[in-house]
Design a protein that fits this description.
Layout (H helix, E strand, L loop, with lengths): L9 H4 L21 H32 L2 H28 L2 H24 L5 H30 L4 H29 L3 H20 L17 H11 L1 H16 L3 H12 L3 H22 L8 H18 L5 H28 L6 H29 L3 E5 L8 E5 L4
Antiparallel strand pairs: 1-2
Helix pairs in contact: 2-3, 2-5, 2-6, 2-7, 3-5, 3-14, 4-5, 4-7, 5-14, 6-11, 6-13, 8-14, 9-12, 9-13, 9-14, 10-11, 11-13, 12-13
């Protein structure tokens, strides 16, 4: 069924010029040739690594202080609930004000929160309720940060390099997700989790400095939207009125609910089907991350961005998961997980690209905030439902495995019997 269309303001729906020819291999990292983006991407890699370090340390310290898996779940809930409720407001901020300034403020605030956590942890005064409060405030920071971050990429590189920059951002996130947890695991064992918060505070400071180093006169600045009534509703109408925005968002919601629960499913397979334990689970996550990194880089090679291409990537991911269910052994299952990681990131990156390229700059912050909210909301819903079902059946436990490259701390299914 085609989503309802609404009358559009021509100023908001003007076409955006994009490159539709397949770039040569030498252009895989072409957006890094732009000084401003190179500075931003370098700082972003450090920030992602440090953020993963903090996430792992935070979960471990909550478990250590409370001895409760439920407390870990509450921490995650406190950090995500602002995004599920308030993310569209972050989109309005991104459309009205300087994206660079918003990021400087949000990263400064995130750094201050990380520093507070570090001081409390390193002085032995950290309590669970401290983590709850800081996690909630950090969630509010994310509401302002994420829409501005998504839209700021266009100001850094311009429309012609936007797709390439989005792909590289996905690659950076995957690379940071492989490095950060491993570093945090070693740090927890060697000197304590408090230093992971200190590392994130330092990374946030470096991010703010990198934003100060960006040359404003080289930015492709977007015109700010004047304050007016009904701007949130305008963004919603705009999103559902364009098939190239509406359908990727719907697919992202379904993907988040059914596809992003893969870590829980891999835990059950590693533990109950292949009897590979925590080590096998860590290996599977590494294989998925490897495939995802390749998928993000492969998205830079897609010549023409179309809705059917995004749908094909989502369908391919579903087919790969069905094949995985038939895998006879751990080796075959692991090989399929590489392909699953590839297909999942190819879909997520292509979907993000299509939504951004289909949205005029004057309303892009609001549209991207809705897209992020759908993606986060679907993932949170899937996590809650699966967690409740497994916990009710007594099949859920939290484990620490510092040998895992990607998930030193994770939830897995208990052994049968």
């Amino acid at each position: 069924m085609t989503p309802p269309s609404t009358p559009q303001n021509p100023a908001l729906t003007a076409p955006i010029n994009i490159v539709t020819t397949r770039p040569p291999w030498s252009q895989t990292f072409s957006s890094l040739k732009i000084r401003n983006y190179r500075i931003f991407a370098s700082a972003n890699l450090l920030a992602v690594i440090a953020l993963w370090m903090q996430r792992v340390a935070q979960d471990w310290m909550v478990l250590e202080l409370s001895g409760s898996v439920t407390a870990v779940g509450i921490t995650v809930f406190m950090q995500f609930i602002p995004s599920l409720v308030l993310m569209p407001l972050g989109g309005i901020l991104a459309d009205r004000y300087s994206k660079r300034l918003i990021l400087m403020i949000s990263q400064g605030a995130a750094g201050a929160l990380a520093a507070i956590m570090a001081v409390l942890a390193l002085t032995g005064h950290l309590e669970v309720w401290h983590i709850y409060v800081i996690a909630f405030v950090l969630g509010l920071v994310v509401v302002a940060d994420q829409p501005a971050r998504q839209v700021f990429v266009n100001e850094l590189v311009g429309p012609a390099q936007l797709r390439n920059a989005i792909s590289l951002n996905s690659s950076i996130f995957q690379l940071g997700g492989m490095i950060g947890p491993a570093v945090s695991g070693v740090m927890i064992m060697a000197i304590g989790g408090g230093w992971a918060f200190a590392a994130n505070a330092l990374a946030c400071t470096i991010t703010v400095i990198s934003l100060l180093l960006i040359r404003k006169n080289e930015l492709v600045l977007m015109p700010p939207v004047k304050r007016a009534k009904g701007q949130l509703a305008e963004g919603f109408r705009y999103a559902i009125g364009k098939p190239t925005i509406f359908w990727p968002a719907m697919m992202a919601a379904v993907f988040a609910i059914f596809g992003l629960s893969l870590p829980v499913l891999m835990a059950a397979y590693a533990n109950n089907v292949f009897d590979a334990g925590a080590g096998g689970y860590g290996l599977l996550n590494t294989l998925v991350a490897l495939g995802a990194l390749c998928g993000a880089l492969a998205s830079t090679r897609v010549a023409t961005l179309r809705l059917r291409g995004v749908m094909s990537a989502a369908g391919a991911y579903g087919v790969v998961l069905m094949i995985a269910s038939l895998a006879p052994n751990m080796v075959t299952f692991g090989a399929v997980m590489v392909v699953a990681g590839f297909a999942s990131l190819l879909f997520l990156t292509s979907s993000n690209q299509l939504v951004q390229m289909s949205t005029n700059v004057t309303i892009r912050g609001r549209v991207m905030s809705l897209y992020i909210m759908v993606l986060i909301g679907g993932q949170a819903l899937a996590a809650v439902v699966i967690g409740l079902v497994l916990a009710k059946r007594g099949q859920l436990t939290l484990r620490l495995n510092l040998r895992s490259a990607r998930h030193p701390i994770f939830i897995e299914a208990k052994p049968a019997g």
